[in-house]
Amino acid sequence: MASPGRAVKTVRLKAPVAPEDVAGLEIGTVVYLDGRLYTGREGVYKRIVGEGVAPPVDIAALSNVNFHCSPAASAAADGSYRIGAVTATASFRFAPWLERWFALSGCKVIIGKGGMSGEVYRKIFVPAGAVYWTTVGYGTGALLGRGIKRVAAVHWLEDLGIAQALWVFEVENFGPFIVESDLAGNSLFEQANEEVSKGFAKLYEGTKPAILSRYGETDSRDDELI
Amino acid sequence: MIPIASIEQAATRLMAKAAIEIPEDYLGGIKAMAERESGDLSAFVLQAMLENYEAAKEDRRAMCADTGLPRWFVKIGNEARIEGGPVALEAALRRATAAATYEVPLRPNRVHPLWRTDHNNNVGINAPEIEFSYEPDGDWVELTTVHKGGLFGTDYRMLFPGDGIEGIKRFFLDTLIAFGKRGLACQPAIVGVGLGGSKDTAMSLGKQAACLRVVGDRNPDPKIAALELELQALGNSIGMGAMGFVGSSMVVDCHVEVGYTHTGGLPMSVHTFCLSSRRACARVSDDGGIEERTDPRWFTPYRRREGVEWPVQAERSRQSG
User: Fold this and answer.
1) CB contact under 8 A, B244 and A145
2) Residues of B with CB below 8 A from A200's CB?
3) Is B195 exposed, middle or buried (0-12, 13-18, 19+ CB in 10 A)?
């Protein structure tokens, strides 16, 4: 093994996350979390932000960490829940709801898959004092499943189903996550893209565009699809 | 007669095994990539994934919570007789899928495309997909389940003979780069390429190449085998690793499958299997015995036959004639 992660810094934080912890995070840092967080994705956003339905619980009082996740879970006959693996879903699809969501919920950390564009960070995350952490892999479902110590509550399970319900988890040594954005709006992924893009001209040397092109097609590999 | 209860029992076991246990061939491929990876973050990701595979096995929990779209590939020996026939077989696979969704548990990913109705069991209209293939002489049935993520990492394009090998390489790179950024394709993974056939055949072949061939397996056509290795090396030379970070880990292996196609066309598909490449296979014998393995052995010489007659049949008809 090429001494993996030798240059990777690791921190352990408490959730809800303190403002000074959010402010002090550098992109590329690995984070493990203890405390409480909740899940919410398009089902929750659509209802609360889109349709103006009152949240089922005071979200700001729950936590300031929102996990874009659907657990592999099932309900037992006694009303308890079995959580198997836990993995995030790709977050870029939820950007349209987040400005209102931050205002409504007081959320300061979004955990998900793949991050958002730098533009979304600068326009929506930074003014709200929020940052983005990405899950690793994707995904380390079994490791994250281990980190969930208790299902504190689940809301809207009937209405939204297991995948879209708002789950509240008590977690311990929950991770790993990688800090993808900071309060200046920098994106680790965009920095990686920029670095990788430098080799594209050489990589594509000698190839030519396909004979039949497609509407809306970009021929610039520097572009992203999200 | 193959007992239907044995088929259902095997199928239920396979659902759990696929979700929880990383196949050995793939694990070996990832370990080898981790050795070579020089990008710090990409190496960290691979190390975390290796720990995750261990945790999944120890805890008996799914390795990834996006347990994908569970589906079935069924190979039936020509002499096999299944209790209750193919309808009973399909019912057994649907029951096993639903039961495992609750028991493992898996994420109930399957919803109606328009109404988003979720039966919470990964079963619905046209779900799970069950694809059939046949094999001369056997009196067994082989079941393979694949749990592959369903959103990113796959693309299709109608190329033309004039696009040639350079066009194939370009579309291969385009797909890996487009979905490799931010790691949306969950690379490194086994990449399958389907070439030829009708458009839907090109898609199916690429999917099967990614999901039903093991790391290290080569296409029997030496020129296609060389193309597989060339595409693998090309993918790993992009400069991108796990999660789109700087690195060299994109393609654990590349498998190419072909089908005879329209004389004017060269349809192509690229499929990226997951970092948690989930497949499990078992043969159920005539006496109900269940033998598990991880290599689906889907692409047999019979499956890739080129002539009108399969040689054995041709031999028989020559003898009888």
Assistant:
1) no
2) 177
3) buried
Residue B108 has its nearest CB partner, among A136, A163, A198, at A163
Mutate to test the interface with A, among B27, B40, B64 (most CBs of A within 10 A): B64
C-alpha to C-alpha distance for A64 and A16, rounded to whole angstroms:
5
- Chain A residue at shortest CA distance from B234: A203
Contact in structure between B253 and B227 (CB atoms under 8 Å): no
Instruction: Choose among A76, A224, A99: nearest CA to A154.
Output: A76
Closest by Cβ to A136, choosing from B48, B167, B179? B48
Exposure letters A124-139 (e unless 16+ CB within 10 A, then b): bbbebebbbbbbbbbb
Residues 6+ apart with CB under 8 A from A209: A219, B170
CB-closest option in B65, B162, B169 to A87: B65
Out of 3.30.365.10, 3.20.130.10, 3.40.640.10, 2.30.30.90, which CATH number does the structure's domain A10-203 have?
Answer: 3.20.130.10
Question: Per DSSP, what are the bridge partners of residue A113?
Answer: A90
Handedness of CA B197, B201, B203, B209 (dihedral sign): negative
CA distance B250 to B32: 12
Which of chain B's residues have a Cβ under 8 Å away from the Cβ of A208? 166-167, 170
Q: Indicate if the pLDDT at residue B314 is higher than 70.
A: no
Taking an 8 Å cut-off on Cβ atoms, the answer to whether A211 and B184 are in contact is no
pLDDT tens per residue, range A42-64: 999 999 999 999 999 999 999 99
The residue ranges of every structural domain in chain B are 151-277
Domain assignments of chain A as residue spans, ordered by start: 10-203
CA–CA dist B90, A77 (Å, integer): 28
B256-305 confidence digits (pLDDT tens): 999 999 999 999 999 999 999 999 999 999 999 999 998 999 999 999 99
Closest CA–CA distance from residue A173 to any residue of chain B (Å): 14
